[in-house]
Design a protein that fits this description.
Blueprint: H1 8-19, H2 23-36, E1 41-47, E2 53-58, H3 65-71, H4 98-104, E3 107-113, E4 120-126, E5 129-136, E6 141-147, H5 154-158, H6 163-180, E7 185-190, E8 193-197, H7 204-212, H8 214-217, E9 221-226, E10 230-236, E11 242-243, E12 249-253, E13 256-258, H9 261-270, E14 280-281, E15 283-289, E16 294-295, E17 306-307, H10 310-328, H11 360-363, E18 384-389, E19 393-398, E20 401-406, H12 407-423, E21 429-439, H13 442-457, E22 461-464, E23 469-476, H14 484-492, H15 503-518, H16 528-539, E24 554-558, H17 559-565
Parallel strand pairs: 1-7, 12-15
Antiparallel strand pairs: 1-2, 2-6, 3-4, 3-6, 4-5, 7-8, 9-10, 10-15, 11-14, 12-13, 16-17, 18-19, 19-20, 20-24, 21-23, 22-23
């Protein structure tokens, strides 16, 4: 094929891929335009997870006829004039690509009016070509309406994620700017539901409550640090409030949300010795720095920055967070070291673990499950309990050697199969003495809403009780000793963002997640009776050798292996 110049519309659609990756990208670019226009109120309406409609209205400065015509052209911007301006950018946008890119892959309409104009102007574009321009009545500000996103780029449309995932991404984008700009009121409406409303009164703590829920927000530790060239402030969670991934570690440079692994590493280093391995804090850190010391022109979506002195930034973040953590943590008073005792002398001493109650199935030996029809059981032999090691593993003797059982994984399997057994019957619920009201962060509330039908089928009694708030009246009987809020958090804990199982798999995956949270934990001392009950329940399981997530529940050391290790049967 001979070399040729691409048509303008195709070149625009290809270029749009750098800026408009998904519906959330459109929301991000349009919110930034509104904020740069000095808006004090931004309203976002989304339908069809952003595929059908994204409409963003603001009460900013607006545009006159000349500006509105230029705004949709590539590389048209009011933010910079020379290359030197790139060294001291304070606006969120500056490339002049957003509107041109969005209008080339959608049915696009922009309406705007300045304070001095008698009427607003409306410009309509389709396939990157202007199809209408007219005067219309509208208040001061700008409204951008994006319909049928990617209708003319089917390849991009095909690779969008599940609707729930795209909606969550939009929630996250709006949340970023809501907390970065607390003096701006944000109103987000998705699929006819009001997802987020901030007051715009400048109180960042109020926004934090909207995003994280009251229970977590009131536990957050405030970070305040200022040096000659940098100011660091924001919030970090106490060591006992953690997540299984880094998704709630957010950073902002001069109010711009950014992605920077080195900043996350600095915060994690500040938590050194405070966090368990594989756990991460909730972080909202804001950095104010001279624009000359940071380059924001390194990524098409402006999501990454480059610092002039990254090592200095790293140390300052680490110092600021560490200082806040130490100020919020009382110095432990050592009154004497405990005398060590082997675990088999501790079996009858129950140790209370804060926030964890032993579920009923462990407290009393339950009836064994009957074999399911047409299923071959992965049998394990009858085991004789020996004891518990490190309050984490059970040691048992079988006819063919020694068994080490992970008590958490084993209990996960036991609860999971008991849950599955109830699916063939009417789920048994245990009513709470008093209904519990739980408020969740917005993203987690969306997940619960999507799973309400399944949750009520398996024994929960949950109903919506306002924005991101739920009323829990009953739990599945099998979760008898579990705290209601912990049971609900188990639904969203460790949930993969793009996890979209087949309909028939949703219930089982949800049950597995709940069982993981409800199972006894490593470090939890069990009485001899509880250990025996757990072994008996595990022996009765259909698949006793793995937990519902595929992790092994036990390790088998055969007699032959032991003899070989002790030199009774050849060399090691």
């Amino acid at each position: 094929m001979a070399i040729h110049i691409l048509p303008t519309e195709i070149a625009s659609q290809i270029a749009a891929g750098e800026v408009v990756e998904r519906p959330a990208s459109v929301v991000k670019e349009l919110i930034e335009n509104a904020l740069d226009a000095q808006a004090s109120r931004v309203s976002i309406v989304v339908e069809g997870a952003g595929r059908d409609l994204i409409e963003i209205s603001d009460n900013g400065q607006g545009m006159d006829e000349n500006d509105i015509r230029l705004a949709v052209l590539r590389h048209a911007t009011s933010k910079i004039e020379t290359a030197a301006d790139l060294t001291h950018i304070r606006s969120l946008g500056f490339r002049g690509e957003a509107l041109a890119s969005i209008s080339s892959v959608s049915r696009f309409q922009i309406t705007s009016r300045t304070q001095s104009m008698n009427h607003a102007l409306r410009l309509q574009i389709e396939d990157g070509t202007q199809i209408g321009f007219s005067a219309i009545g509208a208040p001061q500000g700008t409204t951008v309406r994006v319909e049928n996103l990617f209708y003319n780029v089917p390849a991009r449309l095909k690779f969008l994620k599940h609707d729930q995932t795209e909606r969550n991404r939009i929630d996250q984008v709006v949340a970023h700017y809501a907390i970065a700009f607390p003096s701006v009121q944000f109103i987000l409406n998705q699929e006819g539901k009001s997802n987020l409303i901030t007051s715009g009164n400048g109180n960042r703590t109020e926004v934090l409550v909207e995003l994280l829920g009251l229970d977590i927000a009131k536990q957050m530790i405030e970070v305040v640090f200022e040096d000659r060239d940098i100011r660091i402030f924001g919030f970090v969670s106490p060591p006992h409030v953690t997540r299984s991934n880094r998704k709630e570690m957010h950073f902002y440079v001069n109010q711009r949300p950014i992605q920077d692994s080195s900043l996350a590493a600095a915060v994690i280093q500040a938590y050194h010795t405070y966090l368990m391995v594989g756990r991460y804090p909730v972080v909202k850190i804001f950095i104010e720095i001279d624009p000359a010391l940071v380059d924001v022109n390194v990524h098409p979506a402006k999501a990454e920055v480059r610092f002039a002195n990254p090592n200095w930034i790293f140390s300052q973040i680490q110092h600021a967070v560490r200082r806040a953590l130490m100020a919020a943590s009382p110095i432990p008073q050592i009154t004497g070291l405990p005398t060590w005792q082997p675990s088999w002398n501790m079996l009858d001493r129950e140790r209370e673990v804060e926030g964890v109650n032993l579920p009923e199935p462990i407290l009393q030996q339950s009836n064994r499950l009957e074999s399911m029809n047409n299923v071959t059981r992965e049998r394990i032999p009858l085991l004789r309990l020996i004891g518990q090691i490190a309050a984490t593993y059970l040691v048992a003797e079988g006819p063919d050697g020694l068994y080490l059982i992970d008590q958490h994984a084993a209990h996960e399997r036991v609860l999971y199969e008991k849950f599955l057994k109830t699916q063939d019957q009417k789920a048994v619920s245990q009513n709470l003495l008093e209904s519990v009201i739980v408020t969740l962060p917005l993203a987690q509330a969306r997940i619960i809403e999507a799973q309400l039908e399944i949750l009520n089928q398996i024994g929960f009694v949950i109903e919506g009780f306002g924005q991101a708030t739920f009323k829990i009246s009953a739990l599945p009987a099998i979760l008898g000793g579990m705290q209601p809020q912990a049971a609900i958090l188990a639904v969203v804990d460790n949930l993969e963002e793009d996890e979209t199982p087949l309909e028939k798999e949703k219930t089982n995956r949800l049950i597995a997640r709940i069982c993981k949270r409800a199972a006894v934990k490593a470090g939890q001392t069990l009485s001899i009776e509880e250990q025996k009950a757990l072994l008996a329940d595990l022996e009765a399981c259909e698949a006793p050798r793995t937990c519902p997530h595929g992790r092994p529940t036990m390790i088998h050391l055969s007699v032959a292996l032991l003899e070989k290790q002790f030199g009774r049967r050849g060399a090691i």
